[in-house]
Amino acid sequence: MSSPTKAQLDQIYRNTHSDYKGLSEDGVRMILVCRGATCLVALEDLTPEEASKRLPRSKE
Asked: pLDDT by residue for the chain (60 residues), tens digit each?
């Protein structure tokens, strides 16, 4: 997967439970990610693999 699009990042943020997301002081949207330990990561800094795990699976 290539870098997630803005629409995909918006969808990831919308579908993330409010306990696992928030805004930084400067308004950057962040979510909790496990990278060996749990940490807050800006949506734009998600790896393609992290993003693909958080996108809904398409129904075929």
From this structure: 688 999 999 999 999 999 999 999 999 999 999 999 999 999 999 999 999 999 987 666
Residue 47 lies in a domain: yes
What does 2-48 look like in DSSP terms, one character per residue? Answer: -PPPHHHHHHHHHHS-GGGEEE-TT--EEEEEESSSEEEEEGGG--H
Domain around 41: 6-54
Domain assignment present for 20: yes
Q: What is the pTM of this model?
A: 0.87
Do 40 and 34 meet the contact criterion of CB atoms below 8 Å apart? no
User: Which residue, chain included where needed, has tokens 């930084």?
Assistant: 24
Instruction: Report how far residue 57's alpha carbon sits from residue 24's, in angstroms, rounded to the nearest whole number.
Output: 29
